[in-house]
Design goal:
With 190 residues, this protein is an alpha/beta fold. The chain has one domain (7-188): Rossmann fold. Helix content is 43%, strand content 23%. It is built from seven helices and nine strands; from the N terminus they run E-H-E-E-E-H-E-E-H-E-H-E-H-H-E-H. The protein has helices spanning 18-28, 58-66, 86-94, 105-115, 129-139, 144-157, 173-188, and strands spanning 7-11, 32-35, 38-39, 54-55, 70-77, 80-85, 98-103, 119-125, 166-169.
Length: 190
């Protein structure tokens, strides 16, 4: 990474509105290229391998860990790995774009540690655990066991929010969109 290159890290508990906010940000500031994460979770309806995620087997994921091909990786849930491949930074830089990372909380902290002041880390926080659980139920993409696991994980992840440069409490999506764009513009000097 060149000295003047910057990157944006956005992390949040599942169901916080992170993906919606990132899509909005990218629509407002076209210099961004989405860093595609690798995962071992099953593909959901409407997702595309190589666009939404790189969908890998646990065996392939472990092989890439052994080969030190990840900037960061985490076993977020038992048998469910997520990570950022080093090749993603190269792919985005070769296009002359700014990398934006949609990663789990620990991954966001790890990337920030690696890139320091070249990275802006933003934590999207739900208004409360109860609101988060309600959003997950409305989304209807997870089983009851998955919802319980995500809610428990979210409670833990929210304890890490102070390790991020900025916190956006997403209690109103329109207000959060504006706040996110303003934070990123300030960081990029735009």
């Amino acid at each position: 990474m060149k000295q003047d290159e910057k990157l944006i890290i956005v992390s949040a508990p599942s169901g916080s509105g992170k993906t919606t906010l990132i899509k909005y940000l990218m629509g407002q500031l076209p210099m961004f290229e989405f860093s595609i994460s690798a995962t071992t979770r099953p593909m959901r309806e409407g997702e595309t391998d190589g666009k939404d995620y790189y969908f890998l087997t646990v065996e392939k994921f472990n092989k890439l860990i052994e080969q030190q091909q990840f900037i960061e990786w985490e076993e977020v849930y038992e048998g469910r790995f997520y990570g950022t491949l080093k090749s993603e930074i190269t792919r985005i830089a070769n296009k002359g774009k700014v990398a934006i990372f949609d990663v789990d909380v620990k991954g966001g902290i790890n990337i920030k540690k690696l890139y320091g002041s070249s990275a802006l880390s933003i934590f999207i926080q739900p208004p409360s655990i109860e609101v988060l659980e309600e959003r997950l139920r409305i989304r209807a993409t997870d089983t009851e066991d998955d919802i319980k696991a995500r809610v428990n994980k979210a409670a833990e992840e929210m304890t890490y929010s102070s390790q991020f440069d900025q916190i956006v409490v997403n209690d109103n999506i329109e207000v959060s969109k504006t706040k996110l764009v303003d934070i990123v513009k300030e960081f990029l000097g735009k």
